[in-house]
Design goal:
Length: 351
């Protein structure tokens, strides 16, 4: 039987339209994120006294999101936190409270479009036990997966506690989306959005490398489903350099059982790389199964309309295109049952 595969955007973010004053709820000096509402459909996301990012109502309104999804031909969005809310640098007790607040608000945002807006949770990753508990609470309440930041202070993803959390995700069959955040800064990186344009891809590159060379993938089961944002950052472009170093300087870097290219089937990446030649490199490096539609909606550095690059890429076969637009995401999300039998009329007209 032929089936219709939904188009799934696995990289989008939400910001609620307001939340409790975190300095009072969570305590401590901050600076905490808060929302300065500037109009019916506009707001400014603030961090303490700093203007962090202007927002439109599509950050919190299910109706606005559905309207855009229908226009873009997207059936389902995975809706993840905005990394500013992670609070990994705070006291764990504070981060637990903040995580609960945003996770519950995410359910409220997605509820009116249940089945089309799929919430991913955040967890207090600086405390492994608390992170596992919050993940369990969220999965029981309706979250489908978890978004984590790519590091916790100086701890990379191969940190024992983070690997234990990833093991818990594998045990619970929960997909993990890794998003770069908390980029290094310096006067050189404080110009032209260089933290977003240079540091973010490098952060993601470092995170994947740490899971490989730090032995994370050697310790974790193959059943772990983990995806990295922004096409895996600069990692896919430099697999050859890393393999070469693994073979050439085993005294310095060969801490993994195999060279980096051996682990390419252990994770996936999103498709928000903007150029067909970049997507082609990504598909040839990661395999067709390793790339999923992600847009970074609703933020200005994202792809709009969502899925444009995959739809227009001439090198993809129709089968590959279906995999990138939704088939791979169904497996990532554990939603293979969501494929619908095609109406007979469509099958007839297509054949
Ligand atoms: Co993003």
């Amino acid at each position: 039987m032929r089936t219709t595969i939904p188009t799934i955007d696995i990289h989008t973010h939400y910001v609620p339209r307001g939340w409790p004053e975190l300095s009072q709820v969570a305590g401590g000096p901050g600076p905490w994120p808060w929302l300065r509402v500037t109009g019916e459909r506009d707001a400014m996301l603030m961090l303490g006294e700093t203007e962090f990012r202007p927002l439109l109502s599509n950050a919190w309104s299910a109706d606005d999101r559905l309207e855009q999804m229908d226009a873009d031909g997207v059936d389902i969005q995975v809706v993840s936190p905005t990394p500013l809310f992670f609070s990994y640098a705070n006291d764990p007790e504070q981060a637990i409270k903040v995580s609960r607040i945003f996770n519950d608000l995410a359910l409220d945002i997605c509820e009116p479009a249940r089945g089309r807006l799929i919430p991913f949770a955040q967890v207090p990753l600086q405390d492994t036990d608390a992170a596992c508990r919050e993940l369990d609470r969220c999965i029981d309440n309706g979250h489908r997966g978890v978004e984590i930041g790519n590091h916790v202070g100086d701890k990379d993803l191969d940190d024992e506690g983070i690997v234990a959390f990833l093991q818990h995700c594998a045990d619970r069959d929960v997909p993990v989306f890794v998003h770069p955040w908390d980029m290094p800064n310096s006067p050189r990186l404080d110009r032209w959005m260089a933290q977003w344009l240079v540091s973010m891809p490098a952060e993601t590159h470092l995170s994947i490398l740490s899971l490989i060379l730090g032995g994370g993938f050697d310790r974790l089961p193959h059943s772990l489903r983990i995806c990295f944002a922004h096409g895996g950052g600069s990692f896919p472009y430099w697999v050859g350099r890393m393999d070469n170093a693994w073979h050439g300087r085993p005294d310095l870097i060969a801490k993994s059982e195999h060279p980096p290219s051996h682990y390419l089937d252990r994770f996936s990446v999103d498709s928000v790389v903007f150029r067909e030649d970049a997507l082609q490199l990504l598909v040839s490096t990661m395999g067709t199964e390793g790339v999923m539609l992600g847009s970074d909606y609703p933020y200005p550095l994202g792809e709009s309309p969502s899925g444009h690059l995959i739809r227009s890429a001439g090198f993809l076969s129709e089968e590959q295109r279906r995999a990138l637009l939704g088939g791979n995401a169904l497996r990532f999300l554990g939603m293979e049952e969501a494929t619908q039998p095609e109406p007979e009329a469509l099958v007839r007209s297509a054949s």
